[in-house]
Specification:
Layout: E1 2-3, E2 10-16, E3 19-24, E4 27-32, E5 52-56, E6 62-66, E7 73-77, E8 82-86, H1 101-112, E9 119-123, H2 129-136, E10 140-145, H3 148-160, E11 168-172, H4 175-185, E12 191-194, E13 199-201, E14 207-209, H5 210-222, E15 231-236, H6 243-253, E16 260-269, E17 276-286
Length: 287
């Protein structure tokens, strides 16, 4: 398992009854997690001292209940000197997936030790965690997301991290259409990161369903790789796309390049139990 174990400002404190208790800097949040199917006793004091609690509705969705939680606050990922602005918004999210730090550490080291300039394409780039990690390591990054609000948020995170002058190209666009245009333009990248949602819509209502769309998109993205690519990373939160599926997908489509594939679950350590909470899967191809 790829484990994000270098956080100081974030930790999963406990898990029970379909929920996880997390510390985000100075604040405690309780959020639902479909992987937490056990009903161990909630002994950690944080369950009773939470600052925010997202309650899932039996009809779908849910809503936040707040107890002395600011509208926005920040945490840092000290290993890479990154700072992220957080705020609770729809469907339980805070604007950051902390388990992805395991991948940030991995590809940051590859960028730093490449001995050359590295161009990175980050698709479905959300609030910029991977973008900032790559930029901080010295890469030039093209950040693409269909949501204008997410791209604005990512720019705010770049400023908070001291990376507002870094070589980052910020684009609000449908990821597949952008890739198709880049192929026509003849542009190439040394590394590609994609963090696709299970289901989503583009700026003009284009429907994205990962099981149907991920393979065609990977095939297109391979055409954007330089002659000496450094890495290709795919993240998935869809239970149907197991690590072995990601490994086969990358291994098949990048077979003409000299490299290796590794795919595993991504996880976060749980302080109270010592377990590791699964948080999706990642497939890594590297030269």
């Amino acid at each position: 398992m790829f484990i994000a174990e270098n956080w100081k400002d974030y930790e999963v404190l406990d898990t029970s009854c379909g929920e996880k208790l997390e510390r985000w800097g100075d604040y405690l949040l309780v959020r639902p997690d479909p992987q937490v199917i056990w009903d161990t006793p909630k002994r950690h004091i944080g369950w009773r001292k939470r600052n925010g609690h997202y309650h899932r509705s039996t009809k779908g969705g849910g809503e936040w209940e707040f107890f002395d939680l600011p509208k926005q606050w920040s945490i840092s990922y000290d290993s890479l000197k990154l700072t992220f602005n957080l705020k609770p918004f729809s469907f339980k999210h805070t604007g950051l997936f902390p388990e992805q730090a395991a991948n940030w550490d991995w590809f940051s080291e590859k960028i730093r030790t490449a001995g050359r300039k590295v161009k990175v394409l980050n698709l479905f780039a959300y609030t910029g965690g991977a973008t900032l990690a790559a930029a901080a390591a010295g890469a030039s990054v093209t950040h693409v997301d269909a949501s204008k609000g997410m791209v604005t948020w990512a720019k705010e995170n770049a400023k908070a991290s001291g990376l507002e002058e870094a070589p980052i190209r910020w684009l609000v666009d449908d990821c597949q259409k952008f890739v198709e245009r880049e192929i026509r333009r003849g542009n190439h990248y040394d590394a590609i990161i994609m963090d696709p949602p299970s289901y989503g819509r583009g700026p003009k209502g284009e429907i994205w369903k990962i099981e149907d769309a991920i393979h065609p998109l990977v095939k297109l993205c391979v055409k954007l790789l330089s002659t000496d690519p450094l890495f290709f990373l795919i993240n998935s939160y869809t239970t149907g796309l197991q690590p072995a599926v990601l490994a086969y997908l990358l291994g098949t489509e990048l077979r003409d390049f000299h490299g290796s594939v590794d795919a595993k679950e991504v996880g976060l350590p749980v302080k109270e139990s010592g377990l590791v909470l699964p948080c999706g899967a990642s497939g890594r191809w590297e030269s």
